[in-house]
Design a protein that fits this description.
With 150 residues, the protein is of the alpha+beta class. It has a single domain, classed as Thiol Ester Dehydrase, Chain A (Roll), CATH 3.10.129. 27% of the residues lie in helices and 36% in strands. It contains 5 helices and 6 strands; from the N terminus they run H-H-E-E-H-H-E-E-H-E-E. The chain has a 6-stranded antiparallel sheet.
């Protein structure tokens, strides 16, 4: 799937659309993505800050989507685990960036070359308009080369 098609689909996907999450960029080679969450009356919690679930949701699928598309059809890629640390209250528009470099992709290819699975953690900061960290998100991916794909 082309990156622009995926971006459009994610932006129209009801969980993102109705929670104020916008995918601003997915690089054509799937090595970079940028997502933002705007503050809206329907995505504020009781104390007027972003829901923690919205902060996690805005980051949830991107490491898996980038790795899956960058590695190609010969690989199985799944989200295995996730964690979030709330650093400070999120207000206004917040964003997250994802950058998947060739060295990481090569490490994944090498670790799975014989058909073994590998687990790898990826870290993402959610940043507010002042450039301060609102939350730190960790996602663990399960990656394995599909059987018979030599």
């Amino acid at each position: 799937m082309k990156a622009n098609t995926l971006k459009l689909g994610l932006n129209l996907w009801p969980p993102f659309l109705f929670s104020g999450i916008r995918v601003r960029e997915i690089a054509p080679d799937y090595r970079h993505a940028r997502v933002e969450l705007r503050m809206r009356p329907w995505n504020r919690n009781y104390v007027g800050t972003h829901f923690g679930g919205s902060l996690f949701s805005m980051t949830d699928p991107f490491w898996m989507l980038l790795a899956l598309n960058a590695l190609g059809r010969d690989y199985i890629v799944w989200d295995k685990a996730g964690a979030i640390e709330f650093v400070k209250p999120g207000r206004g528009t917040v964003h997250a960036k994802f950058a998947l470099d060739e060295q990481v992709l090569q490490e994944l290819r090498e670790a799975t070359a014989g058909g073994e699975k590998t687990l790898r953690w990826f870290d993402t900061d959610v940043i507010d308009g002042a450039g301060e960290v609102v939350a730190r998100v960790r996602k663990q991916l399960y990656v394995r080369r599909k059987p018979g794909r030599d």
